[in-house]
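[User] Once you have settled down, look closely at the record that follows, and write a paragraph about the fold.
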Amino acid sequence: MVAALGMERVFLMEITMRMWKWMLSFALVFGVAACGSSGPTSQPQPTGPLGGYPGPAATQAGYPPPGPTTQGYPAPSPPVTIVTGSAPVVVTYKDFDIVLSQLTVPVGTLVVFRIESASGARHQPYNSEAPNIFDAPDDLGNGTSWSVTFTEPGTVTLRCRYHDQMSATITVTP
């Protein structure tokens, strides 16, 4: 009889352990499945024009606000502006962004770099790679401009000496 009670206890303990393992497995499986569901949660849901999460309420001084992104993917490429003819083209350094960030122009085009800085930021447009190496005067502020004529075909990467994150591309065609 004592042996029977011992076996009964072992049997109950084994059943209890199996039940706990089964319940834990069940909770893990359905817990993971619930993470991928689109039901209501207490987590913030994607918002914004392209479904990306909203940026912080305030950005640090001297840095641009984050661009729009779709959840898990980078922002789409900006459209390329193609210029024909010989009229001057204006590229604007607006606060911490370069407007007309992808531009295609023919050789001989005069490009005017205009500074529009409501934040008071100073800029210095430059390109340090051949062809068409140039460096604008330093410390250009709001309302100033500087120009360069592109004389060689190739790709030019525009930058600002004061703000490394500012970048744009000009493709100069023959």
